[in-house]
Amino acid sequence: MFALSLADAKVAGGLGLIECDEPPMCRLLPHDPSAKPAVTDPIISIQGLTKTYDSGFEALKGIDLDIREGEIFALLGPNGAGKTTLISIICGIVNPSAGRVSVGGHDIVRDYRKSRSMIGLVPQELATDAFETPLATCRYSRGLFGRKPDAAHIEKTLKQLSLWDKRDGMIMALSGGMKRRLMIAKALSHEPRVLFLDEPTAGVDVELRKDMWTLVEGLRRDGVTIILTTHYIEEAEAMADRVGVINHGDLILVEEKDTLMQKLGQKQMLLDLTEPLAAIPARFADLGLELADNGSRLIYTYDTRAERTGITSLLSDLRDEGIRFRDLTTKQSSLEEIFVSLVQEG
User: Fold this and answer.
1) Cα–Cα distance between 152 and 121 in angstroms, integer?
2) Is the link from the previous residue into 24 a cis peptide, with omega within 30 of 0?
3) Which residues contact 175 (CB under 8 A, 6 or more apart)?
4) What angle, 0 to 180 degrees and rounded to 10, lies between the N-to-C axes of helices 176-188 and 134-144?
5) Residue 3 — φ and ψ, nearest 5°?
6) Predicted pLDDT at 288
7) pLDDT at position 214, please?
8) CB 154 within 8 A of CB 209
9) Who contacts 117 (Cβ-Cβ below 8 Å, separation ≥6)?
10) At what angle do helices 151-160 and 134-144 cross, to 10 degrees?
11) Residue pair 101/44 in contact by the 8 Å Cβ criterion
């Protein structure tokens, strides 16, 4: 018998790897090394998933989603949109009200042990044993998933997350950012095929955030499927292959990131004028021009998908009006601007 935190007991117990008389007192169950997950495409399939709490609140409303093996999928949405509920159901922490979810071809209810052993989860909350060491907690976490000891893998993971020098110190002495990185190290300790990152860089400084995303890119190259939620939308813009937007429990959009930005993104031409304008001339009223910076900048928004952008005729008309500019730049809508627009519409 051994002691285990209540949170870890719930996860490992759900995996069928331990049994508990009365958590936190638990015992390990024998592991079947011959059990291998089926290789399927998509690696995660969600069909008609709903979650309604006893209060009547609908956290998820009929979610249908396939996630491809080896991709980085960014799940975006405001607070309370249902992101964490969706992740928690897939990971076996929250029970669904209806619908079906499979991971690697294994149903999360019928084949819970096989499906959940494929998953690594980095939750929003920092749940660690304050009196344990980073090295010991990663070794222990690996063992809970029935994996044989692998000192080289643990060392590699801790080094990639800049924790190797802290491996023998008490977790209670780590900073908040280091504890966040330790949660990622724990999730990677059993070499999962699917990694969920729920706000993984919250409280982490810029330099360490870059280190973490370097690690994520390496995991993707190794074939690990990564699903992340983040409030740092520039990270999703830089990293994700596809983007899903969830709001009020509805999955309102799933799209390739580049396609999304091309379809919904707008482009702007910014003209820095040699002389400021008090007002936009009447002949340009139908073009939707805007003045900024006290009349010294003219902004023209256009659709890149249109057959004609109108830029050539606009520049010609400005010349005819005697309006001169000293600099011209263009700006593409960011993923954050598209996200805000979608959520407001929803």
Assistant:
1) 21
2) yes
3) none
4) 30
5) -90, 145
6) 83
7) 82
8) no
9) 15, 17, 37, 145, 146, 190, 192
10) 130
11) yes
The SS3 of residue 233 is: helix
Distances (CA, A) of 233 to 176, 269, 284, 336: 22, 23, 35, 6
- 270-293: per-residue pLDDT in tens? 999 999 999 998 888 888 898 999
Structure tokens at 190: 């059993």
Contacts of residue 77, Cβ cutoff 8 Å, sequence gap at least 6: 83, 229, 245, 246, 247, 343
DSSP state of 296: T
Question: Containing H/E element for 10?
Answer: helix 6-14
The one-letter code for the residue type at 226 is I
CA pair distance 152, 157, nearest whole angstrom: 9
- Ramachandran angles phi, psi of 21, nearest 5°: -70, -50
The low-confidence residues of the chain, meaning pLDDT below 50, are 1-3, 6-7, 15, 17, 22-24, 29-40
User: For residue 14, what are its two tokens?
Assistant: 């759900």
Which CA distances in Å does 138 have to 123, 165, 173, 184, 248?
16, 14, 17, 10, 36
Order of strands across the sheet with 25-28? 2-3, 25-28, 18-22
Q: What is the pLDDT of residue 134?
A: 95
Strands 25-28 and 18-22: antiparallel
Residue 78: count of CB within 10 angstroms of its CB: 16
Phi/psi at 343 (nearest 5 deg)? -65, -40
Residue 151 sits at φ, ψ, to 5 deg, of -60, -35
| Side chain identity at residue 214, one-letter code | T
Burial degree of 241 (CB within 10 A; 0-12, 13-18, 19+): middle
Task: Note the pLDDT of residue 31.
Answer: 41
With beta carbons less than 8 A apart as the criterion, state whether 239 and 201 touch: no
